[in-house]
Amino acid sequence: MQEKINEIEQQIDEAVQDVQSSKSLQEIKLKFLGRTGKISELMKNMRDVPPEQRPSMGKLLNALRQWTEEKFNAIEKRLKDIELKKRYSDEKIDVTLPGRAAADGAYHPNTLVVNELVSIFSGMGFEVFEGPEIENDYYNFTALNTPADHPARDMQDTFYLAPELLLRTQTSAGQIRVMENKKPPIKILSPGKVYRSDDDATHSPMFSQMEGLVVDKGITLCDLKGMLDEFAKKIFGEGVKTRLRPSYFPFTEPSVEVDVSCFECGGKGCRLCKGTGWIEVLGAGMVNRRVLEGCGIDPDIYTGFAFGMGVERIAMLKYGINNMKLLFEGDTRFLKQFKG
Length: 340
Ligand code: DAH
Fold this sequence. Notes:
Order of helices and strands: HHHHHEEHEEHEEHEEEHEHHH
Strand order of the largest sheet: 1-5-6-10-9-8-7
Bound molecules: 3,4-dihydroxyphenylalanine
Largest sheet: 7 strands, mixed
Oligomer: single chain
């Protein structure tokens, strides 16, 4: 027996000689101390030892087991210490290194324009109202004096979701929702996305508009003109003037197209204004009495004006952007040039 014990001790010494990690140590440990390990097997064999020899044998085996356990524990402690130190040094963070600067974002030109418009018009007492992008045919067309067979429907190629349901083609739809729910005085500004089945160099199937509506007693075209003068100066610069040209929209009568004097050349004529000295910026007019009536507002007591503009168009003019697609591509090299 003593021989066997010596042999096992020797095997253990050899096995742990080059052990490098606590994990492989664990594997070696199992070979000797595990349930089917060499020492455990010896202990099981005690059954075959004659009873008178058992006490001395038992002593020897217990001593072997203790010796083995102590040996493994000592090596394990040494290896774990080394492993821990290595982990500490591998995961060390140099807190004195300079931090990485967070990349700062920039507002999209559309957002800048919308924010500026909201700020200009809220200064004049307008409230913001946002209507739904999915609209009923009624709000987008019929209530705006554009019934089903009206030729003006052709002005806007429409995405229909169902016979009565569509993606709004104009934020004007929101005017009706406001007038149905609120009695004059009304003074609202309504920004939002609109959709038209149109896609070429100067048209996008989705774009943004800003709508305005004022309804009260005694509102005239002069009020519209005065407000537009103020808006044009604030958004394009002090010297800028406005002019109204006759136009047609079903929901306004009279209807006008609004130009601003060219802020690039001061009205002399240049590439931006195509030599005319004027740049078209929005559509407007006096709210058609049929539209007021449809919303339960008496047109003999109340009058109003409305206007609608394309946000991308204003952004392109204001920031000198020559290609509308830049506003839709999300290229950060373009976008980061705009700081609010
Ligand atoms: N909804 C018109 C369009 O999308 C723009 C417009 C014109 C809006 C005149 C108005 C308005 O409120 O009075 O072309």
